[in-house]
Design a protein that fits this description.
It comes from Paraburkholderia dilworthii. This protein is an all-alpha fold. The protein contains 9 helices and no strands.
Length: 257
Amino acid sequence: MSNKVPEATLVFWAIKIMATTVGETGADYLAVHVGLGTAVTGSMMLVLLLAALAGQLRMRKYVPWIYWLTVVLVSVVGTQITDALTDKLGVSLYASTIAFALALAVVFGLWYRSERTLSIHTINTTRRELFYWAAVLFTFALGTAAGDLATEALGLGFVIGVVVFGALIALVSTLYYVGSNPVLTFWLAYILTRPLGASFGDLLSQSQAYGGVGLGTINTSLLFLTAIAVLVIFASATATATAARTVSTPASKRASK
């Protein structure tokens, strides 16, 4: 099958950050405002994630809508895992941050040992895709724990959290453009977009009394879900147009490029 992960373009990163925001605000809305609680919300989202992941694994190429649906659901489940450890089991954010960092390192170690690469440009077998989604899940859980640790336990707040994580992503981007390892910088940015999106989501959704804008979790979730849908439609149209141009280009011209 062909590579099943999209290119890391501006559209990719925009959807990724908004997906993390939805993971933060959507989980809070269902668990707190709807009153489902962390356990019920987590169970529901896990079932939906498994269904979406099964659909994603059946695809033989990158299909935008199912790929990004899986990302959004992974974001919610990753948030729920961290929240359950913190709120229900009393695990400190310091401990959960370290634990998820180690778990992610183990996934990367097993992935590299098996495939000799961690590149998103080579997700063209089922085994590599399973490693990829395991890594994505732990990046969301790690990002949630690290973001909560910075904004809550260390007292940075939402605004400073957005600035700090935004600056770290800018630093990683600079390292990439000056020639640093592209695989390493990709995964660093992927991890950092989670606390950035979560801090931004909290900034928009939380009340002004807590330093937020006061949009509420449902309005913030709907706003970003709409934006994600628009960008996914755009990505689908772009992918279709690219495929059409490839088919219409004579083989001799493609071979000469």
